[in-house]
Amino acid sequence: GIRVCNLDYLMLAAFRGLPRLLADGKDVALTARAFGTKRVRQRRRSRGRILQLKETHYEPKPEGYQPLPLSLLASGPIRRVLSTRSVEAKRLAGSIDWERYKCDVKGVRWHACGGWRVLFNKKDFEHNFFVKCSCYFRVAIYGFDRSKELAIAYRKRLEAEWEEQQRIWAELDRRREEEKAKRRAERAEQSLKDASTATSELSE
Question: Under 8 Å CB-to-CB from 124, ≥6 apart: which residues?
């Protein structure tokens, strides 16, 4: 309902045929929209501002520091163990050998599916050759240590094959450049011969 305190408004409302009007200042039941009112819009303090991350003091990492992969938090049981502050959760988190989930090989990371993921993404725009490989070595099939070894070996194999392909392209490019230089020299020699024959004909 709307509080009515103006006589002109009461007359206008009665002219429009509203269902119930009380002139003593009580509530009035309105079925139409109240025009001319301004809707208040609450403005947040962050409106129009660029929110920055919380600034903390820089702490240099020790030599040989290697963080845990963020993919560990993608697993529900591990995330719950780390986020829960109970005594049992702390005991379980302390009993896990977190160093086993670290890998210093580029492109080999632990995945939440329960295995080691190999990601290899290389691009060669000059030769229009693109490679994007994503392979998983699951612990349920190969075991934890074996799957990690296979993932590292497969990543190194992909890198070796890419380097071999780069050497092949370098050799092909070298041969192509040699053939171009040879044809250029032949054309220059032929143009000199044509010029010499033309001058001899003119002198005669």
Answer: 130, 166, 169
